[in-house]
Amino acid sequence: MFSHLDEEMQPTMVDVSKKVPSLRRAKAKASVQLGSDIMAHLAAGEIHTAKGAVFATAIIAGTMAVKKTAELLPFCHTLPIEACQIRIAKEDEHSVVIECEVSTFAKTGVEMEALSGVSVAALTIYDMCKGLSHTICISSIHLLEKSGAKSEYRASSLAR
User: Fold this and answer.
1) 127 included as an active-site residue
2) Does residue 12 carry a pLDDT above 80?
């Protein structure tokens, strides 16, 4: 049975009231294929467009998304975000990789927050670079790892 359905198969938020809080951590990743024309603008780890510093803005937007995940996804619990770190780096000659690591001390995990962070950071990069090209492709948004609950998860080396 899906955790977000009650006995009558109606949508519901998972009841975490009886869970014990613990340190929860999650890390997610996304790739953004910018193409060589946009990547040619990369200097000192940043791309500047008419809209400003692309990666710095994406990190701020991704962090905001982490903090607002419960407002975006109907069954996510509102969580006190203890830490959020977003990193953007050159992946190859055509793309960048975004990683978002989130932690909290709570009764439920922060996987959706980490996934929201990389997704919005990737969308921000697209928005800020679309004036240079519309062939940008956001791909491979996935969870790398999670810890702090009954089940731990770490993506295989192929998915990292």
Assistant:
1) yes
2) no
Q: How is the beta sheet containing 52-53 ordered, strand by strand?
A: 42-43, 46-49, 52-53
In a domain, 140, yes or no: yes
How does residue 4 score in pLDDT terms, banded at 50, 70 and 90?
low
Per the structure block, which two tokens stand in for 133?
Answer: 């090209």
Whether residue 152 lies inside any domain: the answer is: no
The 10s digit of each residue's pLDDT in 73-97 is 988 999 999 999 999 999 999 999 9
Q: Is residue 58 part of a domain?
A: yes
CA atoms within 13 A on the CB side of 21: 6
pTM of the model: 0.92
| Domain of residue 61, residue span | 22-147
Euclidean distance between CA atoms 119 and 128, whole angstroms: 14
Question: Which candidate in 6, 37, 92, 127 is catalytic?
Answer: 127
